[in-house]
Design brief:
This protein is mostly helical and 421 residues long. 69% of the residues lie in helices and 1% in strands. It comes from Chitinophaga terrae.
């Protein structure tokens, strides 16, 4: 009962802002106060992957401190905000790992997050399309998580496929392409690991090529529908009309994630130690690069009326922008550790009720680290990481003392040359 109460408070209070060290969430205050009672040094030895993730995040914090204090000499207001974000990421990950103890508790967490998403509305939801993307998608996605859990637990994996495919099509139609792609790929993976398909690496290569061809055909159909105003919204059609070749998906990715190229320019200017916490784009150099890739003209008066941070929209590149190569390596390690656990679960946990959620979260980790702002390291990654970590150690086989050590070693590959799914 106490565990459920803590989860309810953690989720529901995450929508309340507190003006402290910039802006903290009220649930982060709760996490901060509970940290001395939650931390157990024995966990670092009992759960090696937990130790590695905490160690990598701690390395990120050290790199940020070095950059802010000794290299860039960031203002105290900015470096306190930057440091607080990393500390809260570590403490939130610790709190959730200790709290999300089994599938039932994780299911309750998903339900409470759904309720939180219903109560609190994203401030970006100001138009019809952005309302769906920033308000409805968080609600519907967690609703799909919950329904997938219940259906899969009762053996209805084909119903899970239908649900994921239907939701992905809805997202494509409503201009939420990244979410649609995550759930579409999730459906394919769940099908592969539940259909009894015999898959070798050669067949995987063939399926991969076929998948790329199908994707390109589907993408061309999507572009035609959007340009004919049969699908998507105004934002999607305007974005495609700006492209020289809208049928090239890489061009769409470049204009949709122009922050990535702006971040690369910022990294080239300060590759070793970065620009510091909350680094401002004072002369709008990187903002201009962003607009260049988005094929937009800059409104000088509007652009100079507010302060602009150096754009990145990528956890990996954002860490490099903020604290240099060391920060990038630290975050890259977190990314690798989460993917290692996620891939292991995708290949080994298909008999657990949580499997659809684990598949979707693993795909989500890839997109989040590549194309989501670094703030997600504080807000979303701790929950995803804690769930993957808990499921990973539940799925690992119990070592048999009679079996040689090399036979019980962790398996890191997804598919062996002649593996059976």
């Amino acid at each position: 009962m106490l565990t459920r109460l803590k989860i309810a408070l953690y989720t529901l209070l995450s929508g309340v802002n507190v003006a402290l060290v910039g802006q903290l969430k009220l649930n982060e205050i709760m996490v901060l106060l509970s940290a001395p009672f939650v931390f157990d040094r024995r966990d670092l030895k009992a759960y090696p992957m937990f130790r590695k993730v905490i160690g990598a995040l701690t390395a990120l914090f050290i790199c940020q401190v070095i950059t802010d204090l000794f290299i860039v000499k960031t203002s105290s207001e900015n470096f306190m905000r930057g440091w607080a974000a990393i500390v809260m990421s570590i403490l939130s990950f610790l709190f959730l790992f200790k709290t999300l103890k089994d599938d039932r508790i994780i299911f309750f967490f998903l339900c409470m997050t759904l309720i939180k998403n219903i109560i609190w509305t994203d401030e970006n939801a100001d138009t019809d399309m952005s309302y769906f993307k920033f308000k409805m998608v968080p609600i519907l996605s967690y609703g799909v998580y919950i329904l997938s859990f219940l259906l899969y637990r009762n053996g209805h994996w084909k119903a899970v496929l239908a649900l994921l495919l239907a939701y992905s099509l809805l997202c494509f139609a409503r201009d939420s392409r990244s979410t649609g792609m995550v759930f579409f790929l999730g459906a394919i993976i769940i099908y592969c690991f539940n259909s009894g398909m015999y898959l070798t690496r050669d067949r995987l290569l063939v399926f991969g090529i076929a998948g790329l061809l199908v994707f390109q055909f589907a993408y061309v159909s999507y572009v035609n529908a959007v340009l004919n105003h049969e699908l998507g919204g105004e934002h999607a059609s305007e974005q495609l009309e700006r492209l020289d070749n809208p049928y090239n998906p890489l061009e769409l990715l470049m204009t949709g994630r122009g922050e990535t190229f702006a971040a690369l320019a910022a990294i080239s200017d300060a590759p070793w130690f970065g620009h510091g916490s909350w680094a401002k784009d004072d002369n709008l150099k990187y903002y201009r690069i962003l607009l260049l890739y988005q094929n937009e003209e800059m409104n000088e008066q509007l652009a100079t009326s507010t302060d602009h941070l150096i754009p990145s929209h990528s956890i990996l590149l954002g860490a490099w922008v903020n604290c240099g190569l060391g920060g990038f390596i630290a975050v890259l390690l977190v990314f690798i550790f989460l993917l290692k656990m996620g891939f292991y679960l995708v290949a080994r946990a298909s008999d657990t009720a949580l499997y659809p959620v684990l598949v979707l979260m693993t795909i989500g980790v890839i997109w989040t680290f590549l194309f989501s702002p670094i703030q997600q390291l504080r807000f979303n990654v701790p929950a995803i990481g804690a769930i993957l970590l808990r499921a990973y150690y539940e799925c690992l086989p119990v070592p048999d003392e009679t079996v040689p050590e090399e036979d019980t070693h962790e398996i890191t590959g997804i598919i062996a040359p002649e593996a059976e799914i």
